Amino acid sequence: MSMMVVFTQAMPLFGARSLAAVRRLATDAKGAVAVGKFHSPIVDALWAVRHAESADDRAADDDAVGAGPTPKHADASRTVARYDFVSNPMLAEQYRNPYGLVRIGRVLEDLDALAGTIAFKHTRPRAPKHLMLVTASVDRIALLHNCDTASDMRLSGYVAWVGRSSMVLKLNAYSDGVFGGAQPWLEADFTFVARDPATQKSAPIDPLELRTEAERAIFSRVAAKVERDRAQRAAPPCAQANAAATAQLVAAALPAVLMPALSDPTTVLMSDTRQTNAFVCQPQHRNTQDRIFGGLLMRRAFELAYATAFLFSGSKPQFIEVDRVQFVAPVEVGDLLMFDARVLYTTPKRTVRESTRAVVVLPPEVHVEIIAHVVRPGQHTSRHVNTTMITFALPEAETVKRVLPTSSDEAQRVLARIAADETRDE
Q1: How far is 14 from 224, CA to CA, in rounded Å?
Q2: Residue 73: pLDDT above 60?
Q3: Averaged pLDDT score across all residues of the chain
Q4: Residues 168, 223: contact at Cβ < 8 Å?
Q5: What pairs with residue 366 in β-bridges?
Q6: Residue 341 pairs with which residues in a beta bridge?
Q7: How far is the C-alpha of 54 from the C-alpha of 8, rounded, in Å?
Q8: Is the pLDDT of residue 318 over 90?
């Protein structure tokens, strides 16, 4: 019995092929093991299909494959992955965390694999022979409701917006035990870019065919957000205001630095929240392009962030959202990868009024930044590869310490993150 069932919108993702048959197609001529087998069952299934379809596309006629971008509807690449937790206790056990809920880190891996599969399907048959698809960023992964493994679950996703050489995918997670499976318990946005494999320059992506007003509305909303993000990245910060705010933050930390025995017990220096983790990237960590799987990097960053928030607060954190993952450079097999996590800032317990005029008490929050570097000790060099921002709530805590940056660099990172969070919430 297979460990899951994976469906597209109307038919099994494997078509008439069994999972075993697809895995055989995904194995190269030398008999190498398909790399997905070293990851989760869902990743294995998604990558096996991608391998098999890539083989079909590579064998296709060059005139057909290289004909150029062709408009496609979202249904052509819409994909659903189902987790049969109820009938398969072994699968459920692989996704259960110590508190009986779904392991978010595992889901992050699967979301990345699902997003890559959708992007691949949208650009078939030009990818992978004429296009190289790269995850540029994860713009947001938000938890809407807790989910356990007592009910079956599914992930689904589709292409929501396409520019010249980039596309935004919307992904959702559903559970039969949450809202009856009718509404998502988690939602995510992924951005992919296309590169020409020969020149490494940007390459055009197949346009998105829009058929309904609802599809046009989603496209317009995503397009507006893409433009806002682009303008925000291009806009230079106000140097004078930024310098004053930076100096104020650093000055607040001076008493704790100069007189640590007399420091305010409700504050902590940012450097004292730091946690690190390092490991050598193994061949089993690679993806279908023989580079380290981005989903694995997100899971490792999430797990370190969770531990950092727990050690900092002394209270069990509850995941709220991945604010952003910015992939700067690829990670290769054999690289020594170091994660550096620290609490950037905290938000105290507060009362807010929602649009329904209901008053809601929100628990304290911890905002953790995780920076990943590839380090080369023998060469005394390092290279920044990605940055992840994750927010946790502290539902069992009444208070949370204020974090004090001690350098201009730390203070500027805090200010930039707060500004980005405020802009996102508008």
Answers
A1: 36
A2: yes
A3: 86
A4: no
A5: 346, 392
A6: 275, 370
A7: 17
A8: yes
Q: Bridge-partner residues for 227, per DSSP?
A: none
DSSP readout, 255-304? HHHH-GGGS-TTEEEGGGG-EEEEEEPPGGGB-TTSSB-HHHHHHHHHHH
Distance CA(319)–CA(101), nearest Å, equals 11
Q: What is the pLDDT of residues 200-225, one digit of tens each?
A: 889 999 999 999 999 999 999 999 99
**Closest of 163, 117, 167, 112 to residue 141, by C-alpha:** 112
Predicted confidence band of residue 75 (pLDDT cuts 50, 70, 90): very high
* Structure-token pair, residue 89: 């206790």
> What is the identity of the amino acid at 170?
K
Q: Residue 8 pLDDT more than 60?
A: no
Structure tokens at 341: 């996590």
Length of the chain counted residue by residue: 426
What integer pLDDT is reported at residue 128 of this predicted model?
63
**334 backbone dihedrals φ, ψ, rounded to 5°:** 95, -10
Q: Is 128 helix (H, G, I), strand (E, B) or coil?
A: coil
CA distances from 56 to 64, 133, 235, 275 (A): 12, 18, 45, 46
Which tokens belong to 266? 């409700």
